[in-house]
Amino acid sequence: MKLITESNFEINTSTDDDKRLYIEGIFATAEAKNKNGRVYPKALLEREITSITDKVASNSCVGELNHPTDRSEIDLNEAALKITSLNWEGNNVMGKAMVLSTPKGQLIKNLIDDKVRIGISSRGLGTVSEGKVNDDFQLLTWDVVQNPSNHGSFVNGILEGKEFNTELEDKTLNEALKKELTRIKEELEALKTKLKTITEEVDYTNKIKLLESL
Predict the structure, then answer these.
(1) 121 is known as an active-site residue
(2) Set 121, 122, 149, 153: catalytic member
(3) φ and ψ at 6, to 5 degrees?
(4) Strands 21-29 and 12-15, bridge-based pairing
(5) Residue 129: in which H helix or E strand, if any?
(6) Strand, helix or coil for residue 52
(7) How far apart are CA 158 and CA 71, in angstroms?
(8) CA distances, 193 to each of 72, 161, 186, 203, 204 (Å)
(9) Is 67 a catalytic residue?
(10) How far apart are CA 29 and CA 8, in angstroms?
(11) Per the confidence metrics, is the pTM higher than 0.85?
(12) pLDDT tens per residue, range 143-185
């Protein structure tokens, strides 16, 4: 499967009474072809938004600054924002995320303070057939990005980001499995040799005993 990302660069910023910084806007769009030529069926996106709602409610839906290029899972060492709310408006998923007080979160705040244009981009795993995102799609989180690619998406909308393969993860796993299989085979060969030696020694001992009894 591929890591599929969709980004928006029309994101608003706001602060609350505690002066916490938030970004908000369109986090996802259904039934519309984006700049990467992909369409998300609304039923599929509704399923995934419902699925991720529990993580949002439990304060565990966090994102990073930029999409990782060598993994799909979230690394808390890279945490930069926390998704705080998601709701539907027509075919758009309106979202809100708090910028965290982590080093990467602070970097986002500094970029915004310096008027750098940033966007929000979803991260998910799945496949695409003829431009339509398939039912195996799994929404993971949203990350802050800088490179746009969805219709009308810049700190208030949804930009489609890069799509990259997770084959590197599979390759690393396969290499580890190969090494483990090689180790097991070597241990089995060593056991076979040891068993053969023990069998030969027992056989020799029995032959000596037989000769002594004659």
Answers:
(1) yes
(2) 121
(3) -135, 125
(4) antiparallel
(5) strand 128-129
(6) helix
(7) 22
(8) 44, 56, 11, 15, 16
(9) yes
(10) 10
(11) no
(12) 998 864 444 333 332 223 444 444 544 555 566 677 778 888 8
